[in-house]
Amino acid sequence: MLRKRSVSLSGHATSVALEAEFWAVLDGIATELGLTHAGLMKRIDERRGRTPLASACRLLALAWTGGDRSFADPAAPD
Which residue intervals define the domain Ribbon-helix-helix in the entry (predicted)? Predict the structure, then answer.
């Protein structure tokens, strides 16, 4: 089942619907990086290019659980 969360990105309200398991990983990433939920979503949004936001969130969660921590570098492109 999908869970929606709302966030404001670049001054526009949007919502992202993901499975609870992905939200759990993303919450852990935000905590580890010292970011708020909004801060994490902003960083994902800035790096996603043309990838849909929900897809970028899932891809980050998969990469992170696979050991890829390159997202932790604030200057690194994804």
Answer: 3-64
pLDDT tens profile 14-37: 999 999 999 999 999 999 999 999
Indicate the average pLDDT of the chain: 93
Give the helix ranges, DSSP H, for the chain.
20-33, 37-47, 53-65
Which tokens sit at 7?
């966030």
Each residue of 4-27: b (16+ CB within 10 Å) or e? eeebeeeeeeeebebeeebbebbe
Give the residue from 27, 9, 76, 72 showing the smallest Cα distance to 47: 76
